[in-house]
């Protein structure tokens, strides 16, 4: 994969070959997997008609692949977020096909998730029960002294996710759209670590933090979903305290290096969880989040 004339990533068969992916799922004892595109394919900076064309192509391909293995693979589509009218139309088209959710970036250009341009999309997703899975991306601003030691991925991505969560909480999204399902990647990024700071700031500087939402973040954050990719069993405890054990779904970031190499290990090794907690995080919560029929999935 080439980006701006430079090698971005060597793409292995498990990124595009369904048979290889199923084999690796079997090896890892993963019965069902949600699949989505890589964020570099969002193409939000392109002309909106081109972004829409790419989104439709990707979504049709994802849907076709998952339809061939309906008990193993669940598609999460992509959207032309640089044109919300087109994004809403694509949501309607894909939900009508049977798609349960969509992956979006943590921001679109200079627009954070609380930008009013996105509200028609949130209204439609809430109406249709479609999940929006938020993945960090576009860390181009992390340049110069921060562009060493893979910091855009190690530090930039968690920061991006934390910023997106703060935008959702303090931008009044969850008050205006109380049934909107938002799931944030990588255990909510840095947000669990700064949640206390954010809530304290909301209380002591309401003139800056409470300008759009009159409900404190700590009262809204448990309405969000996150995945379990925290890499550290102890971190799962903090994620659970922040969002609730019932709002954590299994996340692996497969098949990339920053993903969990032993699927579910971080959940299984956290001793403070009961067996029911672990089962919920490993599969039960995801079924609820996506409103799936458990009887149609591989056991």
UniProtKB/TrEMBL annotation:
Q: Read off the PANTHER family from this record.
A: 2-AMINO-3-CARBOXYLMUCONATE-6-SEMIALDEHYDE DECARBOXYLASE, 2-AMINO-3-CARBOXYMUCONATE-6-SEMIALDEHYDE DECARBOXYLASE
InterPro entries, sorted: ACMSD, Amidohydro-rel, Metal_Hydrolase
According to its UniProt record, in which pathway does this protein act? Secondary metabolite metabolism; quinolate metabolism
Q: Which family does it belong to?
A: Belongs to the metallo-dependent hydrolases superfamily. ACMSD family.
One GO molecular function term of this record is: aminocarboxymuconate-semialdehyde decarboxylase activity
Subunit record text: Monomer.
- Annotated Amidohydrolase-related domain ranges read 11-292
Q: What is the E.C. number? A: 4.1.1.45
What does this gene product do? Converts alpha-amino-beta-carboxymuconate-epsilon-semialdehyde (ACMS) to alpha-aminomuconate semialdehyde (AMS).
Question: What is this protein called in UniProt?
Answer: 2-amino-3-carboxymuconate-6-semialdehyde decarboxylase
Pfam families from the xrefs?
A: Amidohydro_2
Give the catalysed reaction(s), semicolon-separated.
2-amino-3-carboxymuconate 6-semialdehyde + H(+) = 2-aminomuconate 6-semialdehyde + CO2
Q: Name one GO biological process term.
A: negative regulation of quinolinate biosynthetic process
Endpoints of the signal sequence? none
Q: Which GO terms describe its cellular component?
A: cytosol
The reply on keyword Acetylation is no
Keywords on this record?
Answer: Decarboxylase, Lyase, Metal-binding, Zinc
């Amino acid at each position: 994969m080439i980006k701006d004339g430079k090698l971005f990533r060597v793409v292995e068969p498990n990124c595009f070959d369904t048979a290889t992916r199923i084999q690796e799922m079997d090896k890892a004892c993963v019965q069902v997997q949600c699949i989505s595109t890589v964020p570099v394919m969002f193409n939000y900076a392109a002309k909106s008609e081109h972004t829409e064309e790419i989104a439709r192509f990707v979504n049709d391909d994802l849907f076709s692949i998952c339809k061939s293995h309906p008990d193993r693979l669940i598609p999460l589509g992509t959207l032309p977020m640089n044109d919300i009218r087109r994004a809403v139309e694509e949501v309607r088209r894909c939900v009508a096909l049977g798609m349960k959710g969509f992956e979006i970036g943590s921001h679109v250009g200079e627009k954070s998730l609380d930008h009013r341009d996105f509200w028609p999309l949130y209204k439609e997703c809430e109406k249709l029960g479609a999940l929006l899975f938020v993945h960090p991306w576009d860390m181009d601003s992390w340049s110069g002294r921060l562009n060493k030691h893979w910091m855009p991925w190690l530090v930039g991505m968690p920061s991006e996710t934390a910023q997106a969560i703060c935008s959702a909480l303090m931008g009044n999204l969850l008050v205006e759209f109380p049934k909107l399902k938002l799931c944030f990647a990588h255990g909510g990024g840095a947000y669990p670590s700064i949640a206390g700071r954010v809530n304290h700031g909301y209380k002591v500087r309401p003139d800056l933090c409470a300008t759009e939402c009159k409900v404190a973040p700590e009262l809204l954050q448990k309405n969000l979903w996150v995945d379990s990719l925290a890499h550290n069993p102890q971190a799962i405890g903090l994620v659970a305290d922040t969002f609730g054990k019932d709002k954590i779904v299994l996340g692996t970031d497969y098949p990339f290096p920053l993903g969990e190499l032993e699927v579910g290990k971080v959940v299984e090794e956290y001793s403070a969880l009961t067996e029911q907690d672990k089962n919920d995080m490993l599969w039960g919560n995801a079924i609820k989040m996506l409103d799936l029929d458990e009887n149609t999935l591989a056991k």
